[in-house]
Amino acid sequence: MSADAGPARITGVSGGPLLAAEYAELEQLAGHCARAGLGLLAWMRLPASTLVDPELLASAALAPVSFGRVEAALGATALGTDALPFAAARWEAMATKVIAARVLIEEVDRGEVQRLWVDVQEVLLREAPDAGPLDQVTLAAGGAAGLLTSALGARTVGITAGWLGAHLYGPEGSTTTRAVPLAVPGPRHGPYDIADLARHLSALSALSDADHPENDGTIEVQTLVDGDGTIRHVVYLPGTDDLNPFSNDGQVRDMKENIRLLGGEPTAYGAGIVTAMQQAGVRPGEPVLLVGHSQGGMEAVALASHGTPFSVTDVVTFGAPTAQIAHYPAGVQVLSLEHVGDVVPELDGAPSSTDPAQVTVRFDDGVEGLIGNHSFEHYTAGAQAVDASPDPTIRASLAGLHDFLAPGQRATAQVFQITRDVK
Question: Does pTM surpass 0.90?
Answer without folding.
Answer: no
